[in-house]
Design goal:
alpha+beta; Jelly Rolls; single chain; four-stranded antiparallel β-sheet; Arc Repressor Mutant, subunit A
């Protein structure tokens, strides 16, 4: 199975952006795509972007601001507002500067998508007889509600400490969307996606149930179903009512809940046994699902168990 990872160049891009503060998905161990969230400015001085082979998408998250870029011997101006996006050329290095913004705490996200992921989607969607050149995106300000929405979802996933399967699912969708919506050239063929049979679905579900603690990939799951990963998520959801990521998250949460009740493992050990890399990530995911921390859940359930246990009353009367 092929796994596409962000380039080492993309991992250094955040260092040159003069934002006042930033957070990054690299802290979660995501490899299928990279999200850097920038907030405000610490400098209005021009800076030069780092050349990277990955696709780069700038998304305005909140506030209004402008950005100037140097092109054809002069500075050119772009205005940004929440939801606007900017697609940057692959392997392109540019000079940028930010004038004093209207909103000092404006936020924008930079999404880096592996070039291999993009090339795979382009080949998958290419019409017979079309050239296999990878699309080159222009640096321009556009509106794309789908990308704006998925960016908000990615930022929420970062806060909740979601795993790389979530990132890989989004990366596959983004690659197809970018080529279908923003790629240059003739229209793209809608290949037959096939179907996922009940037998194949059962095999995928059994595989996920047996390996939920492992860092599963979208390609692994699609491979179990013998379906292209670019159609697997849609077909899986049509059958199950959840995306593979959501189904896996529920498997992990249900296992964690049972372990908290029936074992003496610490919260950190339960999280690790359910596939979470750190205790804070596990706690954030558990709290988002059940509206209480793992420790609070364990305490509440143990309290109920003691009330229902007749031995508790006997011991209290002695």
């Amino acid at each position: 199975m092929t796994a596409y990872s962000i380039s080492k160049e993309s991992l250094t891009c955040r260092s040159v952006v003069p934002s006042a503060r930033s957070t990054s998905s690299r802290d979660l161990g995501w490899t299928s795509l990279l999200v850097d969230l920038h907030v405000g400015l610490k400098s209005n001085e021009p800076y030069t972007s780092i050349r990277t082979p990955d696709a780069r998408i700038g998304v305005s998250v909140s506030g209004r601001y402008s950005c100037e870029f140097f092109s054809r011997s002069r500075w050119r101006f772009d205005a940004h507002s929440p939801g606007s996006i900017c697609l940057h050329r692959n392997e392109h290095q540019s000079r940028y500067r930010f004038p004093v913004p209207e909103d000092s705490d404006f936020k924008w996200a930079m999404i880096y998508l592996p070039v291999g992921q993009l090339a795979s989607a382009a080949e998958h969607l290419r019409r017979a007889g079309q050239p296999d050149n990878l699309p080159t995106f222009n640096s321009l300000v556009d509106r794309d509600p789908a990308i704006a929405h998925i960016t908000v979802a990615l930022l929420r996933a970062m806060t909740n400490g979601e795993g790389n399967l979530y990132a890989e699912t989004v990366a596959a969708w983004l690659a197809v969307h970018l080529i279908s919506r923003h790629g240059s050239g003739a229209c793209i063929e809608d290949r037959n996606a096939g179907a996922i049979s009940d037998a194949r679905l059962s095999r995928v579900v059994e595989f996920m149930s047996a390996h939920f603690a492992e860092p599963l990939t979208l390609e692994q799951l699609a491979g179990e179903a013998c379906i292209s990963k670019y159609h697997f998520t849609r077909l899986f959801k049509s059958k199950v009512g959840q995306t593979p990521y959501q189904f896996l998250a529920d498997l992990r949460m249900n296992a964690a809940r049972q372990m908290l009740i029936s074992t003496d493992l610490s919260v950190a050990q339960v999280g690790a046994a359910c596939g979470y890399s750190t205790s804070p990530h596990f706690s954030a995911a558990f709290t988002a699902k059940f509206s209480m921390t793992p420790s609070e859940f364990r305490g509440s359930r143990l309290g109920i168990a003691e009330m229902d246990d007749p031995r508790a009353d006997d011991s209290a009367n002695q």
